[in-house]
Amino acid sequence: MVINDVVTLLKETLPRAVALEMALADDLWFVSANSTQLSQVLMNLGVNGRDAMPRGGRLCISARNVTVSEALAKSNPGARSGPHVLITVMDTGSGIPPELINRIFDPFFTIKVAGKGTGLGLSTAMGIMKGHGGFLQVQSEAGRGTEFSLYFPAVLTEAEGVVSTGVTDLPRGHGETVLVIDDGPAVRAVVHALLKAHGYNSLMAADGPSGLVLFREHQSIVKAVITDMMMPGIQGAGGYSRIVGHQARLPRGGEEWSGQ
Asked: What is the per-residue pLDDT across 81-100, written as a single tens digit (0 to 9) for each?
């Protein structure tokens, strides 16, 4: 189950002061969903919860079956009533100020300190939920924590009342090497764990210049590059273009990483 995998990965990134809990109902319905995108949403919310608890606290991920009423569906554009699986991600952190809570899903809006977030995580999560026919809600109180509720439509067969996922397993790697360039230590840790869990090796770089150096040294084995698009002082697309443009012949000195 995707939730179990995400909890396993989060355990590798959370400080000891943060207690991670999981509460899953035994009779959970399945949903027709992209497992990679679902993992992305849950990981983002989990990391946000961790960041909201610098002195420690409790992070809980739970899931249960619910029936969405007509009234609730109408209050969330694009949603529909009926059986859903409700996944909640709750933290006991600093919470979100009431004057800001209506803006947290806006692209590029963030309440984190400079350099700690791009403001794209929650807007991406909202887009993923809508793409699955579901919806996302948030409740928060400053100083008392935040709870995100993710509603995924359940897929029930008419004949047996059981669920058909329609989701195939993700293809596994066979030791291929992926270069990851990101200035966030937690992001690098999560991506490393994900790649390892799916059979890939990884090289990690904290900025563009070191990423270019790693590529020069290991270009014969690097099969793919994952790069942050908005690192300070660098544009990921420009850096990636430098790698692609120099793949056949990379100079050994005097090269600089540039977002121009």
From this structure: 999 999 999 999 999 888 88
Helix (H, G, I), strand (E, B) or coil at 157: coil
The SS3 of residue 82 is: strand
d(Cα 57, Cα 207) in Å, to the nearest integer?
Answer: 31
Distance between CA atoms of residues 90 and 138, nearest Å: 10
The mean per-residue pLDDT over the stretch 154-172 comes to: 53
Q: Which CATH superfamily is domain 2-153 in?
A: Histidine kinase-like ATPase, C-terminal domain (3.30.565.10)
| Residue found under tokens 């207690």 | 19
**Which segments of the chain belong to CATH 3.40.50.2300?**
177-245
Dump pLDDT digits (tens) for 7-30. 988 888 889 999 999 999 988 998
Is the confidence at residue 177, as pLDDT, over 70? yes
Q: Work out the average pLDDT over 100-122.
A: 61
CA distance 156 to 160: 8
Architecture of domain 177-245: 3-Layer(aba) Sandwich (3.40)
Contacts of 227 (CB under 8 A, 6+ apart): 180, 181, 182, 211, 236, 239, 240
What backbone torsions phi and psi does residue 161 show, to the nearest 5 degrees?
Answer: 70, 25
Read off the tokens for 169. Answer: 């397993």
In the chain, ranges of CATH 3.30.565.10 domains: 2-153
Q: Are 104 and 112 in contact (CB under 8 A)?
A: no
The single-letter DSSP state of residue 241 is H
